[in-house]
Recover the amino acids of this structure.
């Protein structure tokens, strides 16, 4: 079976080529999703078979080895490509295939009528190809190729509505910001391959375990590789691109910027876990960065009004959670949270997309009271919110608990390490509160309460062809005066709600269903099983989560005055402005980078370029003088020849008597 | 009077060559320049004959070379005069100073 895992890349790649070849034009684009969905069904089957193979292989070591082919050989350097099936990659294959499949079905409804329908599915298939390739890669270099490919697809899909200036610049921002991390990642790969002579994951792991790499700067290598993950997984300080990436279509946000691509950084850290654990201090740095990110993003999410931005910051925060887990040694917790998060965050984005599809606005303050009109969306969203908040028995409860327990009970944590772990535990617990709070703030604002009295702008009947066309403008002008937007709101079509329901089921049960099996599968014990203390953590985290939900209900469900006081506080505007980090970066770019650039531009233009220009000028100047010798006068030339002969004769005569200069000898 | 030695021939040849060089370098008339060339060739011929005459080997190379040089000089004169003729047709003069259009 393992030999055929490459098919999981080949299916969506074929779909990409077929769509590009046949279904890009608008009139044939309606067939494009079916091509991709067929391919993804194939992928799902392959992924499930790979999962089965990986589960069996645990008892037969060797079966999960990579299937490899030599790609190129340069001298001693042999670069091979192949597929690696182990519990981690098999899990990711299943997650990526299933989530991608569901989101494509959803996209058929969401993107209906878009002029770029075919292009959308072409990009999506390219993305799925690259993402699955990233997951099954058996060597770092291969992974890096796919790593950049998913980055490219992310760029293309964020800027999918490229005529919109915000989308175009958000795409650029995402691409440029992640580049900072990727440069470090590439340096790390090169450094590591110089030290080990191989790119292969299995070989690297064995080398690390044998202790042969103790003296090659493992900490730096691990941190450089982690810097790639910081960019891709939107960790502080490179998290700024992900909220802007919400300019893309919502299913894209669900697939790429919530479930799969942004988790690639976490996957990378999990993939290099042995190395990172072996490197002193590297995992502490990872844990602290993850903790900072989790807190920072969760706090920003409290004050955002755009429904997708709340979810984007929530994603950043949860990714920080996973990094924290991996950093403190909770391998199982990190990976498990990655899986459950993929389900419930994709679900939440699809719900947000459903709301946006119905209302035509992202703004939470223009929503409200949608429960009555969009029951399916509201209930699935509630399940997602409960899962994200970590309420039992939904999936997030188990994975979040695994993370918390890891912070508290990591085996072998000595005293200096505990100085980091205990504050991180408290921080993680606080983030649980914030998460529950902002998530239910979103839910109450969108679905509970009464419809907000947002009216159609009561403007005079616009003359045709003047001004931007408003949504659903073609209604009789007399009734358009004071009708709340919500009156037109209706539930989304089946092809959108069915994926949501499936994801809701996965988000609800995957935690309970997979907890013990998954821990065994990944070869680690479920850290929650720590007797009484373990149960205490569960109870405390649940209480904290309920506290967050209760606060959200008091403030936004019942519109308590505390909410208004909070919104008037300076803290609120600080959070609303995202800790002014974007402004800080903009200031830095303007004041430091651009000023530096001006200096360097001057140096380049006047000094470096001066040498080049000077060389050309000198040549021209000399030429202008020397060319005067070409007089066109025959006798002048004859004279020169004659003088040359005379000089030659004199020189030859002189040299018969005297020494030759520079050690030359006379011709014999 | 002493006998005529090789030095006499060589001095004569050198004087003739210098006359030729003067003609080539200093005269403006293109025909005179060609005549200067002829003088230089003849100076060379005198050298050939002198060395032939005074060398002990008794071989015939000197005379053979002189004959070749005369032949070549005749051909060269024909070509040179043809060029001069064309020069005249083009510029209405055979002053070599005037034919200086191929310059910077």
């Amino acid at each position: 079976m393992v030999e055929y895992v490459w098919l999981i890349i080949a299916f969506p790649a074929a779909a990409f080529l077929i769509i590009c070849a046949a279904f890009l034009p608008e009139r044939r684009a309606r067939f494009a999703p079916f091509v991709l969905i067929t391919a993804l069904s194939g992928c799902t089957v392959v992924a499930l078979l790979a999962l089965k193979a990986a589960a069996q292989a645990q008892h037969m070591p060797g079966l999960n080895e990579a299937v490899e082919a030599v790609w190129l050989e340069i001298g001693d350097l042999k670069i091979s490509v192949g597929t690696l099936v182990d519990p981690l990659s098999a899990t990711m294959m299943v997650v990526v295939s299933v989530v991608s499949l569901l989101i494509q079905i959803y996209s058929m409804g969401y993107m209906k009528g878009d002029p770029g329908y075919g292009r959308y599915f072409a990009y999506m298939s390219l993305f799925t190809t690259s993402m699955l390739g990233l997951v099954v890669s058996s060597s770092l270099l291969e992974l890096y190729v796919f790593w950049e490919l998913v980055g490219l697809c992310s760029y293309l899909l964020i800027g999918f509505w490229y005529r919109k200036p915000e989308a175009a610049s958000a795409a650029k921002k995402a691409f440029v910001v992640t580049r900072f991390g990727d440069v470090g990642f590439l340096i790390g790969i090169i450094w590591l391959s110089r030290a080990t002579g191989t790119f292969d994951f299995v070989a690297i792991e064995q080398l690390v375990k044998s202790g042969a790499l103790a003296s090659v700067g493992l900490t730096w290598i691990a941190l450089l590789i982690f810097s790639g993950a910081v960019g891709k997984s939107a960790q502080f300080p490179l998290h700024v691109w992900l909220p802007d990436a919400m300019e893309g279509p919502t299913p894209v946000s669900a697939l790429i910027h919530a479930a799969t691509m942004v988790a690639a950084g976490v996957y990378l850290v999990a993939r290099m876990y042995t190395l990172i654990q072996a490197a002193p201090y590297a995992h502490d740095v990872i844990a602290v960065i993850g903790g900072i990110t989790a807190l920072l993003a969760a706090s920003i999410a409290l004050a955002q009004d755009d429904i997708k931005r709340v979810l984007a910051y929530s994603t950043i925060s949860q990714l920080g959670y996973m990094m924290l887990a991996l950093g403190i040694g909770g391998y199982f917790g990190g990976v498990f949270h990655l899986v459950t998060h993929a389900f419930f965050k994709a679900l939440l984005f699809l719900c947000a997309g459903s709301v946006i599809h119905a209302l035509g606005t992202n703004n939470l303050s223009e929503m409200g009271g949608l429960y009555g009109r969009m029951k399916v969306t509201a209930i699935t969203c509630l399940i997602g919110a409960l899962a994200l908040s970590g309420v039992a028995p939904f999936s997030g409860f188990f994975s979040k608990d695994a993370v918390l327990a890891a912070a508290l009970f990591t085996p072998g944590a000595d005293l200096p390490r505990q100085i980091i772990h205990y504050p991180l535990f408290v921080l993680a617990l606080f983030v649980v509160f914030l998460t529950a709070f902002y998530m239910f703030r979103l839910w109450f604002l969108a679905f509970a309460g009464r419809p907000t009295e947002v009216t159609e702008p009561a403007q005079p009947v616009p003359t045709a062809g003047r001004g931007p066309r408003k949504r659903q403008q073609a209604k009789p002008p007399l009734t358009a005066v004071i009708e709340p937007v919500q009156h037109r709101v209706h539930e989304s079509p089946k092809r959108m709600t069915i994926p949501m329901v499936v994801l809701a089921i996965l988000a609800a049960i995957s935690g309970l269903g997979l907890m013990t099996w998954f821990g065994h599968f990944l070869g680690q014990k479920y850290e929650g099983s720590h007797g009484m203390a373990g149960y205490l953590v569960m109870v405390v985290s649940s209480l904290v989560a309920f506290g967050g939900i209760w606060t959200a209900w008091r403030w936004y469900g019942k519109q308590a005055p505390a909410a208004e006081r909070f919104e008037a506080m300076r803290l609120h505007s600080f959070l609303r402005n995202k800790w002014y980090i974007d402004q800080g970066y903009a200031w830095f770019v303007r004041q430091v980078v651009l000023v530096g650039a001006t200096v360097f531009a001057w140096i380049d233009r006047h000094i470096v370029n001066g040498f080049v220009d000077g060389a050309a000028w000198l040549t021209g100047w000399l030429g202008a003088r020397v060319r005067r010798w070409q007089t066109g006068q025959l006798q002048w030339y004859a004279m020169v020849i004659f003088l040359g002969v005379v000089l030659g004769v004199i020189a030859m005569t002189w040299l018969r008597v005297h020494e030759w200069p520079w050690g030359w000898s006379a011709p014999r | 009077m002493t006998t005529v030695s090789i030095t006499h021939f060589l001095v004569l040849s050198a004087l003739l060559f210098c006359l030729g060089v003067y003609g080539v370098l200093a005269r403006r008339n293109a025909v005179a320049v060609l005549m200067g060339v002829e003088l230089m060739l003849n100076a060379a011929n005198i050298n050939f004959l002198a060395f032939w005459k005074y060398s002990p080997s008794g071989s015939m190379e000197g005379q053979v070379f002189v004959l070749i040089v005369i032949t070549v000089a005749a051909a060269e004169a024909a070509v040179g005069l043809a060029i001069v003729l064309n020069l005249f047709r083009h510029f209405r003069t055979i002053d070599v100073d005037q034919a200086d259009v191929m310059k910077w």
User: Anything to note?
Assistant: The first strand of chain A starts at residue 67 and ends at 74.
